[in-house]
């Protein structure tokens, strides 16, 4: 593949050397375009040695070959890493003041951008608006990650690691899967209902199965909105950097409901994997409850709305709605019976049922499911890794969507 790597003026440029190395080792023809600022961090000699191709920052070299547009036209993929706040602004405005700018305007290849900057700059409304503009134009934004920054501070703004940028960028190009062009909304994790500023009612959901649902869909070409309630450390895995997955973090059931309603509005498939608290505390205390205030005898609860039922009621024509149910059945027949009852009660197209218990289901990387469809039929059964299970569910979704009305 002919890959252009744009490098702009941030200290993370030294990590891009490794990115270029990966791509070259992977067999790609890599052409590096550093900006004038970038070569203050890593020089042209390094880029030429690592990429094994000539490197220039100038639009005035190789004019006979129309170099200012030639690279962009030939590219199968353009990666910009690191992308500074200034670069994001230039890209959003369509500026063509240097070789990277002209290349970006001349290309019709997918563009993957890995921003890197201090947290304040990343969170500035100007940067937020520029990123939004680029996303709308189809640019894939990878990261930034949350972590230590150059000034000794820490926060979102650190460039995503080179291996992950390479994986994300290559995934964009291989986006010809059986879910290409399909938009999906997936929820994951466990909601938390506050009792007071330090306590909550939660559940043991790790968020892994929902993350794998999102990742499987994105790897098969879908554009994914992943609404994540509380998840275990690291549970989002590769989903957190996949260029076709946009993650929204939420806390309570009502925040999850609002985010899912919004994400579902233009989705072709909606999958509720999240473990939603059925009840919330009627009156959340402003201050930490203390035994000094007297013993707490009861905690008054009110029922949360059924988000899935709401999504089914408000579904758009042709939209497929899938629910998940974690059950503690007496045996397999009971599991199926519970699944059938729940599917009817929720009105979903498919209900994915799995057994959980004190030791099964939650923290594990494996899962065993049955999928109940219309007419109470078992349309799929799968066991294996959560990714394998996710792929089986998407196969079932495709089968439902492909069926004649
Ligand atoms: N769900 C939801 N809103 C709720 C509760 C559950 O959208 N308030 C969704 C879950 O995300 C899941 C499905 O409904 O996709 C089944 O969840 P489950 O907790 O098994 O459903 P409940 O209706 O709470 O059933 P039960 O009374 O058995 O707990």
Global shape: globular
Give every kind of bound small molecule, once each: cytidine-5'-triphosphate
Main sheet strand line-up: 12-11-8-13-16-17-18-19
Count every helix, treating DSSP H or I runs of 4 or more residues as helices: 13
Report on this structure:
The protein is an alpha/beta fold. The protein folds into 2 domains: 172 residues, 3-Layer(aba) Sandwich (Rossmann fold), CATH 3.40.50; 225 residues, 3-Layer(aba) Sandwich (Rossmann fold), CATH 3.40.50.10300. The protein has an 8-stranded mixed beta sheet, sandwiched between helices. Helix 4 crosses helix 7. The radius of gyration is 24 Å and the shape is globular. The two termini are 41 Å apart. The mean pLDDT is 92. The structure holds cytidine-5'-triphosphate. Cytidine-5'-triphosphate (CTP) binds next to helix 11 and strand 16. The site of cytidine-5'-triphosphate has 12 residues, from helix 11 and strand 16.
